[in-house]
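W.,

You were right to be curious about this one. When I first looked at the sequence I had no strong expectations either way, so I just let the prediction run and decided to look at it fresh. Below is the sequence, 192 residues in total, followed by the output.
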Amino acid sequence: ARTSLTLGYSQRFFGDSYNVAFKHKTKRLTNSITYDESLEVFDRNSYQEVTPNIIELIESDEYSLNKRFAWSSQLQFSRTSFTINASTNERKSLATNVIDDTLDASLSVTRKISPKSSLSLSAAFNYKTYDKNNPLGSRQEDYYRTISTNFTRNLASSLSCNFTVKHVNRDSTIDQFSYNELRATINITKEF
């Protein structure tokens, strides 16, 4: 089918939950939109001093409600593809009502330059806000900007090599978390 639509509704202990998935495909263009509400558990184990000189392992499960919206669009030609992705996530702790927001956007271009080689360029933006509704909290805001290029070469039927150069810039309202980074990686993969 060229078009699909899935709708979901459920009642959970935290309230009503909804999910939607829509996908439409033509000869060269594929669009996908999803919305999902899900409960996630973050296991956090920490050592705490319960009495002087006595430290115990304290186990806690932190439940959070995640509301995610995502849109993806891909334009495919014979040797070149263009992909745009955008998403947002609101994470709410059910114990503390702390809300963290995330916004992501990316654009990538991939070109098959030979039967065994491809080159891709991508740019991404990520924005995160922690404890956004608490005026007395730190309200940390982080901005990530990433530019990368990747060269892939298939050396044999089950052997490939990837060479990636990536620049990451992170600006944070807390100065110690801000940085600029340039990474170069080479991966050689053998499939068995």
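Here's what jumped out at me. The two ends are 34 Å apart (CA to CA). And, maybe more interesting for your project: The chain has a mean pLDDT of 89.

Coffee later to discuss?

I.
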